Task: inverse folding
């Protein structure tokens, strides 16, 4: 049985102990809450397909420093880790992209980006190395099989509507599960 670690990005004590990190915000919505909804949906989809699932944080109050998330994945014997996020830019950018660390993780990043973008009907911005992110390295990628999925742009009205829509979320999570099962 595959063990999948789901990391809903940001949240309580992400960077500073006792401080809630909302991540990107737009029109009264915040990234940490959106990706928690996605993580809970994805957990259900993966479990229904026979996978063991561990979340790095389970709700808005659960403290989880970003520097410990890779340790959590290792301690539970994770086979793969999916870190869920929402992008933000000027309000004009749109689409799904997936970041990865090593070349051996590129193919899955391509599959995940294509699957989620197709399910949501958003632009496929593709697979990108972590070095092409806004940070030179991503702490969660200290875990060897980790993909950071930017599900869409919270500050783009079409993307945000998809991120908040339960039917789109269900389709996106099913697409992620399909991509993860394609390697079994």
Result:
């Amino acid at each position: 049985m595959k063990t999948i670690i789901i990391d809903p990005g940001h949240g309580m004590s992400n960077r500073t102990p006792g401080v809630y990190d909302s991540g990107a915000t737009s029109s009264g919505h915040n990234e940490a809450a959106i990706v928690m909804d996605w993580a809970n949906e994805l957990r259900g989809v993966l479990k229904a397909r026979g996978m063991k699932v561990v979340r790095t944080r389970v709700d808005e109050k659960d403290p989880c420093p970003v520097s410990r998330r890779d340790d959590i994945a290792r301690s539970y014997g994770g086979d793969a880790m999916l870190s869920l996020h929402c992008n933000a830019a000027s309000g004009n950018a749109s689409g799904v992209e997936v970041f990865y660390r090593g070349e051996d993780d590129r193919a899955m990043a391509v599959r995940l980006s294509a699957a989620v973008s197709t399910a949501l009907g958003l632009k496929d911005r593709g697979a990108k190395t972590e070095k092409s992110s806004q940070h030179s390295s991503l702490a969660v990628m200290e875990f060897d099989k980790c993909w950071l999925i930017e599900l869409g742009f919270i500050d783009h009205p079409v993307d945000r509507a998809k991120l908040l829509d339960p039917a789109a979320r269900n389709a996106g999570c099913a697409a992620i599960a399909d991509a993860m099962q394609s390697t079994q």
